[in-house]
Amino acid sequence: MHMNIEAGSNNLLRGDLSNDPFEVAALRYYYKPYIAFFHSFELRAYAEMDVRLSSPVLDLGCGEGAFAAELRQVLKKDISFTGLDMSEKALQTARATAGGLYESLHQGDARKLPFPDSRFGTVVANDAFVAVTPGLDLSLKETARVIRPGGHLYCTVATDRFGEHALWTRILRSVGAPGWADNYADRLRRRLTCFNYFTPDGWSSLLTDAGFEVEKMIGFFPLRHEDIWGFLTWTPLRALSVFRYIENEAARKLMARALMRAFQRRYKETPVHNDVNECSYILIRAVKS
Ligand SMILES: C[S@@+](CC[C@H](N)C(=O)[O-])C[C@H]1O[C@@H](n2cnc3c(N)ncnc32)[C@H](O)[C@@H]1O
Fold first, then answer.
1. How confident is the model over 89-101, as a mean pLDDT?
2. Residues 181, 172: contact at Cβ < 8 Å?
3. Is the per-residue pLDDT at 198 higher than 90?
4. What DSSP letter does each residue of 100-127 carry, written as one string?
5. In a 3-state reduction of DSSP, which class is residue 81?
6. What separation in Å is there between the alpha carbon of 17 and the centre of ligand 1?
7. By mean pLDDT, which of 73-87, 146-160, 251-265 is the weakest?
8. Is the distance from the beta carbon of residue 126 to the nearest atom of ligand 1 less than 6 Å?
9. Ligand 1, atom 27, residue with closest C-alpha
10. Domains and CATH numbers, the chain
11. Is the CB of 86 under 6 A from ligand 1?
12. Which helix (H) or strand (E) holds 68?
């Protein structure tokens, strides 16, 4: 599949509907730059992966549905999802804002899915398995159970680099304070609800044990993105969230464009395929064996 992964085509101001990952993420999260920055690389990994979405598609841990909407736009696929999440609050937002994105939305637990065996052709679990605690192994087995043989799982998950690459973790390690560094990395992960993080090989073993065969991994968020991301998560910048409620579309596009201008160089200079062992996050494609 050929995808346009070059940022900066300025479609935003021309009003075209772009499938450029950076534009898609910036337009949705212009008021939360740290999410826009992260999603642009996450979406680019999907754009580069040979994604085969066979219906029905389960969006496991769908949250408010924002990522599925972005993914559909980037992949230019006219698909709808079945959504499941444990949080009723997130589902309420998804119901209110996701339009025709979901055929149905379910409140449920990834460790005990309310679906029959082999119900889905594909499961997308974006940034979801990191948050399931305890019982990650159960949720992986449940996911395998509801996918039909030959169907695919696409999931993004944190690696052991996540938290380790953070600027303060590195500073604390370099000044000989490993205990404080561990503490800082742990608190950061917990704040971001990232409870499960393993090496790429570790994820591969867990998925194999659950009944999958890992076909491909694409790494994103290498070390050089952590500093910029750390800056974007800086509390004063979070005040930009007040702009979430801007109704004027031209103003929203202007903010998204300013964001893209600021980070375009960083986005373009990064190769799509990074060494998975050097990245904080990976996109995995696994097939149900
Ligand atoms: C980091 S968010 C990801 C949301 C969305 N997929 C995205 O990429 O933006 C993780 C989601 O997993 C959900 N979650 C955590 N544990 C769960 C469980 N046991 N069963 C179902 N959903 C769960 C949370 O409620 C949250 O919405």
1. 93
2. yes
3. yes
4. GGEEEEEE-BTTB-SS-TT-EEEEEEET
5. strand
6. 28
7. 251-265
8. yes
9. 63
10. 11-288 (3.40.50.150)
11. yes
12. helix 66-75
Eight-class DSSP state of 26 = H
Q: Give the other-Cβ count within 10 Å of 189's Cβ.
A: 19
Average pLDDT, integer, range 168-181? 96
Q: List the residue whose alpha carbon is closest to atom 13 of ligand 1.
A: 61
Distance of CA 147 to the CA centre of its chain: 21
- List the structure tokens of 61: 């841990």
Q: Please name the residue that has the structure tokens 């103003």.
A: 251
Residue 22, token pair as written in the block: 């950076």
Alpha-carbon span 49 to 272, nearest angstrom: 10
Q: Is the pLDDT of residue 17 over 60?
A: no
Which stretch of DSSP H or E encloses residue 230?
helix 223-232
Mutate to test the pocket of ligand 1, among 82, 97, 102, 132 (most ligand atoms within 8 A of CB): 132
How many whole angstroms from 141 Cα to the centroid of ligand 1? 17
- Per-residue tokens: 99: 């339009």
Ligand 1 close to Cβ of residue 60 (< 6 A)? no
Q: How far is the CA of 131 from the centre of ligand 1 (A)?
A: 6
CA angle 172/270/152 to nearest 5° reads 95
Burial of 163 (0-12, 13-18, 19+ CB in 10 A): buried
pLDDT band, residue 193 (cuts 50/70/90): very high
The pTM of the full predicted model, rounded to 2 decimals, is 0.91
Of the candidates 98, 100, 143, the one whose C-alpha atom is nearest the C-alpha of residue 124 is: 143
Spatial separation of the C-alpha atoms in residues 90 and 105, rounded to whole Å: 11
Q: Is residue 191 within 8 Å of 209, Cβ to Cβ?
A: no
Say yes or no: CB of residue 25 within 6 Å of ligand 1: no
Nearest protein Cα to ligand 1, atom 8: 126
